[in-house]
Amino acid sequence: MAEKPLKSDTILSQIDAHNLTEKIIEIDEPNISFFIFQLGNYLFAFCGSQAREILPYTGLTWIPGATALIPGVINLRGDVAAVLDLKQILGMNETSNETTGAFIVMIRSGDGRNGILVDTIVDVVEIPNSETKQVLSTLDERFKRFAISQFEYRHNLVTVLDAALLIEKVNS
């Protein structure tokens, strides 16, 4: 008398047969890291490759004759670094200049150390390259010039800014 095969053995053999007929393709997609921050009511991000470090706002030293885009400088381990006011650069003059709880994101740039003043650091994430999308045509015109891509984060749209373009605007 032949033994009846176990139900689990039958299921496993069906899975094996299915796997032989279906080609399963695994894609090893590169991830990109982003520093997500809030500025006013908007979410923005810098690519991880552009951001060097995040510092708590502890005050700035005002520079006479400096434009409103550069509210001051900080001493960063013995080096002087200019701090850029991102709200001013992006034309967000309607938002408050409240700096309590603010942060300075230090940016990699060819011409020295620069910090960018932001309201809040939201998160540091890694997302697959395929999840970044082209900038929507409906994006606020003030931000379009500096935007390189967008992605969704917790049901909110995050606009990725090009730090080099921001610094270029200040230097021009």
3D structure, described in words:
- With 172 residues, the protein is α+β, with helices and mostly antiparallel strands.
- It has one domain: OB fold (Dihydrolipoamide Acetyltransferase, E2P).
- It contains four helices and ten strands, in the order H-E-E-E-E-E-H-E-E-E-H-E-E-H.
- The protein has helices at 7-21, 86-89, 141-144, 163-171; strands at 31-39, 42-47, 51-56, 72-76, 79-85, 103-107, 114-118, 120-128, 147-153, 156-161.
- The strands form two sheets. The chain has a five-stranded mixed beta sheet. The protein has a five-stranded mixed beta sheet with strand order 3-6-7-5-4.
- Residues 31-172 form the CheW-like domain.
Number of helices: 4
Tell me the series of helices and strands, N- to C-terminal.
HEEEEEHEEEHEEH
How many domain regions? 1
Distance between the termini: 90 Å
Q: Categorize the overall geometry.
A: elongated
Tell me the strand percentage band.
35-45%
Residues in helices, as a percent range: 10-25%
The fold-level CATH name is OB fold (Dihydrolipoamide Acetyltransferase, E2P)
The count of DSSP E runs of length 2 or more, i.e. the number of strands, is 10
- Strand order of the biggest β-sheet: 8-1-2-10-9
- Summing up helix and strand content along with how strands pair, one would put the structural category as alpha+beta
Low-confidence region ranges:
none
CATH architecture: Beta Barrel
Superfamily (CATH H level) name: CheA-289, Domain 4
Sheet with the most strands, sense and barrel status: 5 strands, mixed
| Radius of gyration (Å) | 24 Å
CATH class: Mainly Beta
Q: What is the average of the pLDDT values?
A: 86
